[in-house]
From TrEMBL:
The keyword Membrane applies. The chain crosses the membrane at residues 72-91, 159-180, 186-207. This is Golgi apparatus membrane protein TVP23. The lineage of its organism: Eukaryota, Fungi, Dikarya, Basidiomycota, Agaricomycotina. PANTHER family: GOLGI APPARATUS MEMBRANE PROTEIN TVP23.
Amino acid sequence: MSVSTPLLDTIEPDEPAVELSGNIKSAKPSPNTRKPVVLTPTNRAQNSQMATTHSDAESGIAGIFRQSAHPLALFFLYFFRISAITVYVISGFLTDNYVLSTVMVVVLLAMDFWNCRNVSGRTLVGLRFWNQVDDDGESYWVFESRDPSRPANPIDSKMFWIALYVFPALWASLLVVSILKLGLAFIPIVILALVFNITNAIGFTYADRDAKQRWANNVVGGGWGLGSLGGQLITGAVQKGVGRMFG
């Protein structure tokens, strides 16, 4: 390049600009162009994993055991009862050995009867009963109850009475099914289960009524300072009221 050559003549011009014409909206979009993604906040994950209310958090079987004061006793109360019914129902499908299935059901029923009367009833609701024979050969019921100042856990009490009354009804329905299907071989097992379950139901019902009557006698025995006559009147009224409510 010579000195006399102007500087502008040595610079190559840029490519000519392409003029754009027409409407921008009429241009065809590229096939590789992705649609924009709009992120919307949601609480779906939180609703599916977390409870919204206190009742939801304490519902279900896990919530019942968390609220129970004696979860182990409550577990075995339902374990023996459910196991006896389950073995009775499915034993015919699993084995043809009648003696084996009968022995298993009877053992579970006996364990449930002992556990309910001596462990679950005393632990969950503070009640116990047994039959005693005196020197003259007469038998009578003996009831025990805890101090009324130590009330039972409401969950334990509710679940205990549900188990006490629901399972005899289930065994009664199984007895009807056995009679309709002419399963005479299984009727003695169902009758034995009904004897065990109904005995516990009647015993604890009378023990609960006896505990309430003794509580009424202790509370109003003095008539709240009204004297012997006032105490007798109030005690009689309360006893009559308790007797009408609980039998």
